[in-house]
């Protein structure tokens, strides 16, 4: 973890590397934090939760279909972004892994980092399907369309294989490399 | 004098028992036997070791006394609360693999529950995680005093990371009454738990001072050697007088004694290998000796579900690791072809060593390793095998020699047989058995030889005594040499067979039923019967269980995290309390939370009936029956126990 020299740009894309000990630690255990996406019912739960969310949002008085579908889309994208692309590490049993996954988000942990796996294809397809449904029900209103598509693009970018283990940093000096994050 | 302190033939218990045995339809049909008129058996010297006390026994929970009193032809030498009395010869089964039957592979062959169970499990975890995060967020702002260990203060980092401990604080604490139960007394067929209550949602547990005797289906006690009374316990007491409590040193630095050398030779004979070494801790046997065997440039191929001690040892060694899908021989073969053809990463040089580590019996799934297939692969691809028989040694096989005995494979075809004494021998520690050259080298190069303390003599004596009971002790025979007759003790050992008398310490004196191996054989057959009966009984009642029918570990799937706590509590609050072990995520995969039964030879068929009845009632309350149909009723299961055992 060498501290980087100052670069002139405001935004930079940084690769988080792995050392040999972390590779060995990762290959020694099955990562059950990320294994459940391949279990039975893990794909269906997305559909179930979206339907339940839509029903709940529809109960708010004064809700129209356009706003409802947009809200479902945005909330789903926000929550899945938080779960798959923001939080790093494993919330239990760190003495087994020795911090080998502390820099990896859940997306990067799925299937040991392999790309184009069925689970990743499904998780890529659900936001797209939800976006298509929301554009249909908003009757292609340009403002809502703009909101929806920018949210979709924002969420799809970290799912691309090119961004595997790469972080976009804005004017961060992040040299300390402390494994567990300090709460603010 | 009070009515209950008189020990006369007309005491209420005696008359009840004699009346009961006359009318009992399940009594053994032996015309010559008479109902017991005196209730104390005199086979053991200490009359308190006996079977039944006729006064002051509270049998409200049905655990202290056997359901059917013994008649005069049955003589028991154990205490019923430690090792159940069962002399019915029909409740025995031979533990051997029938050639031609397939060994179940990975989880794809297990029945799947309906979708609503899985979806509700995901939703439960989602709800728990969201609630946990909300409570953390609000709590840190509203009640910072309770969260001081999780927040930075005075410029110092927090004591615990709130993210790392999230699961422990928010999910495990809700179920904490199932974990960490304080117990007292020996963990045999029954165990005494210290009751406790929690006024503040499991953050603090307060002992109430009372004790409950419960049926123990949660301890690793496969052959029932967890006894405070009996031949092995007496041998341990003798040893303390002979050898003391400790040898005060590590094995390579003066802590070795002749008892250690003798015990290692006995273990080697038991396993059928050339030599063996003993380590004082089971976990450390793996974690300190795997680094001595493999290192940088070697490859370890380990099963997905191997124990933490194996992975710890592999990580310490610095060798490369690859995992294959649990018990899947095709996946193992594909992996072998890949790694052998590719060689080391980046340089593609051939590997220095390839070691495949598997377990004989997996403790969380109850599956048996497919050892015949691995031996075939070994002949083809020429790798080394390490079999960790922590759970299978003593519990499987017609002679109790483990998974090699079960599959009738010569033990020398496996390179290293490792095991622990904790589960079947009522002791502690672990062993490694292999070639003499290998073991000699490991003795010096393993970490525990130089740095760990030597096994303590009393624990070692329990190992020796229990092993001798399982093997049986060969009495020396006389042979005639030409015209003069000389007494030649039969020293040669044939695996598997009884241990020669010269391999045991001279002061070891086991009672005759243990020394001739009859009790050992009976225990082996009892556990084979009990494990198959419980397994098939649960399947016929409609539950989903994993694992091989021969395994003494029976996991029963519960799936939802909320049901774990209720299952544990409902089992504990019955008329006959039963303590069980519930295991949830992250020790198991997310959706397969389970309760894990550990069957023992100390249980009787009536105990297994009690457990099946309890599961039946609780299964209706909690809706955990998602197994295959057709199903039987509980009375059908109890009545047709012998048919069930023959099914597997």
Automatic annotation (TrEMBL), chain A:
A UniProt-annotated Pfam family: ORMDL
Cell compartment(s), UniProt: Membrane
Gene Ontology cellular-component terms listed: endoplasmic reticulum membrane
Topology with respect to the bilayer: Multi-pass membrane protein
InterPro entries (alphabetical): ORMDL
Major localization class: membrane
Keywords, comma-separated and alphabetical: Membrane, Transmembrane, Transmembrane helix
Name recorded for this polypeptide: ORMDL family-domain-containing protein
Transmembrane segments: 69-87, 140-157
Organism: Roridomyces roridus
From TrEMBL, chain B:
PROSITE patterns in UniProt: AA_TRANSFER_CLASS_2
Catalytic EC class: transferase
Gene Ontology biological-process annotations: ceramide biosynthetic process; sphingosine biosynthetic process
InterPro entries listed in its UniProt record: Aminotrans_II_pyridoxalP_BS, Aminotransferase_I/II_large, AON_synthase_class-II, PyrdxlP-dep_Trfase, PyrdxlP-dep_Trfase_major, PyrdxlP-dep_Trfase_small
GO CC, any one term: serine palmitoyltransferase complex
Disordered: annotated segments: 20-51
The protein's Enzyme Commission number: 2.3.1.50
Cofactor(s) this protein requires: pyridoxal 5'-phosphate
Reaction(s) catalysed (UniProt annotation): L-serine + hexadecanoyl-CoA + H(+) = 3-oxosphinganine + CO2 + CoA
Pfam families in UniProt: Aminotran_1_2
Residues of the Aminotransferase class I/classII large domain: 215-464, 518-614
Molecular function per GO: pyridoxal phosphate binding; serine C-palmitoyltransferase activity
Keywords in alphabetical order: Pyridoxal phosphate, Transferase
Biased composition (Low complexity): 33-45
PANTHER family: CLASS II AMINOTRANSFERASE/8-AMINO-7-OXONONANOATE SYNTHASE, LD36009P
Entry's family note: Belongs to the class-II pyridoxal-phosphate-dependent aminotransferase family.
Protein name in the entry: serine C-palmitoyltransferase
Organism: Roridomyces roridus
Lineage of the species this protein comes from: Eukaryota, Fungi, Dikarya, Basidiomycota, Agaricomycotina
């Amino acid at each position: 973890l060498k501290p980087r020299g100052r670069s002139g740009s405001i935004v930079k894309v940084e690769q988080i590397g792995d050392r040999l000990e972390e590779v060995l630690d990762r290959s020694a255990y099955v990562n059950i934090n990320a294994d459940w996406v391949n279990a039975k019912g893990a794909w269906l739960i997305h559909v179930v939760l979206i339907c339940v969310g839509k029903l709940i949002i529809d109960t708010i008085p004064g809700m129209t279909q356009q706003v409802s579908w947009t809200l479902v889309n945005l909330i789903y994208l926000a929550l899945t972004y938080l779960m798959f692309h923001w939080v790093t590490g494993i919330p239990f049993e760190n003495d087994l892994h020795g911090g080998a996954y502390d820099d990896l988000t859940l997306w990067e942990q799925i299937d040991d980092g392999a790309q184009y796996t069925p689970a990743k294809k499904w998780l890529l397809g659900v936001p797209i399907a939800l976006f298509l449904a929301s554009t249909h029900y908003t009757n292609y209103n340009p403002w809502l369309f703009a909101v929806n598509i920018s949210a979709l693009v924002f969420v799809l970018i970290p799912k691309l294989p090119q961004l595997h283990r790469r972080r976009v940093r804005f004017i961060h000096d992040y040299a300390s490399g402390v494994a567990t994050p300090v709460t603010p | 004098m009070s009515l209950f302190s008189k020990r006369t033939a007309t005491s209420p218990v005696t008359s009840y028992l004699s009346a009961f045995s006359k009318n009992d339809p399940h009594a053994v049909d032996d015309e010559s036997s008479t109902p017991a008129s005196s209730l104390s058996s005199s086979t053991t010297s200490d009359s308190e070791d006996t079977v039944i006390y006729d006064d002051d026994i509270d049998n409200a929970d049905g655990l202290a006394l056997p359901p059917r009193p013994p008649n005069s032809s049955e003589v028991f030498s154990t205490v019923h609360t430690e090792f159940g009395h069962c002399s019915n010869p029909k409740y025995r089964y031979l533990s051997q693999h029938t050639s031609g039957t397939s060994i179940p592979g990975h989880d794809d062959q297990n029945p799947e529950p309906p979708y609503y169970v899985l979806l509700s499990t995901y939703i439960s975890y989602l709800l728990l995680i969201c609630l946990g995060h909300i409570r953390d967020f609000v709590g840190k702002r509203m009640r910072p005093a309770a969260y001081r260990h999780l927040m930075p203060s005075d410029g110092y980092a927090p004591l615990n990371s709130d993210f790392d401990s999230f699961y422990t604080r928010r999910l495990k604490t809700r179920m904490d009454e199932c974990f960490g139960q304080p117990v007292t007394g020996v963990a045999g067929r029954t165990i005494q738990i210290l009751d406790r209550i929690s006024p503040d949602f499991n953050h603090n547990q307060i002992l109430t001072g009372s004790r409950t005797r419960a049926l123990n289906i949660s301890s690793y006690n496969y052959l029932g050697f967890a006894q405070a009374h009996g031949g092995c316990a007496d041998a341990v007491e003798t040893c303390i007088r002979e050898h003391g409590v400790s040898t005060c040193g590590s094995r390579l630095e003066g802590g070795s004694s002749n008892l250690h050398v003798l015990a290692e030779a006995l273990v080697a004979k038991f396993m059928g290998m050339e030599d063996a070494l003993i380590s004082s801790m089971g976990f450390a046997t793996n974690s300190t000796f795997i680094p001595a065997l493999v290192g940088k440039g070697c490859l370890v191929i380990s099963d997905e579900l191997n124990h933490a001690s194996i992975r710890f040892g592999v990580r310490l060694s610095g060798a490369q690791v690859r995992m294959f899908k649990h018990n899947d021989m095709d996946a193992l073969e594909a992996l072998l072809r890949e790694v052998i053809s590719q060689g080391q990463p980046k340089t593609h040089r051939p590997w220095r060593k390839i070691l495949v580590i598997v377990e004989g019996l997996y403790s969380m799934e109850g599956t048996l390793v497919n050892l015949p297939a691995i031996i075939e692969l070994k002949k083809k691809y020429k790798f080394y095998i390490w079999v960790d028989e922590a759970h299978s040694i003593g519990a499987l096989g017609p002679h109790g020699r483990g998974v090699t005995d079960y599959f009738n494979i010569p033990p020398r075809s496996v390179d290293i047989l490792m095991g622990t004494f904790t589960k079947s021998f009522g002791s502690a520690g672990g062993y490694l058995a292999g070639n003499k050259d290998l073991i000699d080298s490991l003795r010096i190069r393993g970490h525990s030889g130089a740095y760990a303390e030597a096994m303590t003599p009393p624990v070692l004596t329990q190992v020796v005594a229990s092993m001798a009971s399982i093997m049986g002790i060969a009495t020396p025979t006389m042979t005639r040499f030409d015209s003069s007759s000389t007494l030649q003790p039969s020293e040669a050992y044939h695996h598997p067979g009884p241990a020669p008398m010269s391999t045991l310490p001279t002061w070891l004196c086991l009672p005759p039923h243990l020394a001739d191996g009859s009790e050992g054989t009976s225990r082996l057959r009892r556990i084979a019967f009990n494990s198959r009966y419980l397994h098939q009984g649960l399947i016929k009642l409609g539950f989903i269980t994993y694992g091989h029918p021969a395994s003494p570990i029976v996991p029963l799937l519960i799936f939802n995290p909320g049901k774990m706590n209720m299952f544990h509590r409902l089992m504990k609050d019955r008329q006959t309390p039963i303590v069980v072990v519930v295991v949830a995520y992250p020790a198991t995969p997310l959706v397969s939370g389970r309760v894990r039964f550990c069957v023992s030879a100390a249980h009787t068929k009536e105990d297994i009936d009690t457990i099946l009845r309890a599961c039946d009632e609780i299964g209706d309350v909690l809706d955990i029956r998602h197994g295959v149909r057709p199903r039987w009723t509980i009375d059908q299961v109890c009545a047709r126990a012998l048919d069930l055992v023959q099914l597997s």
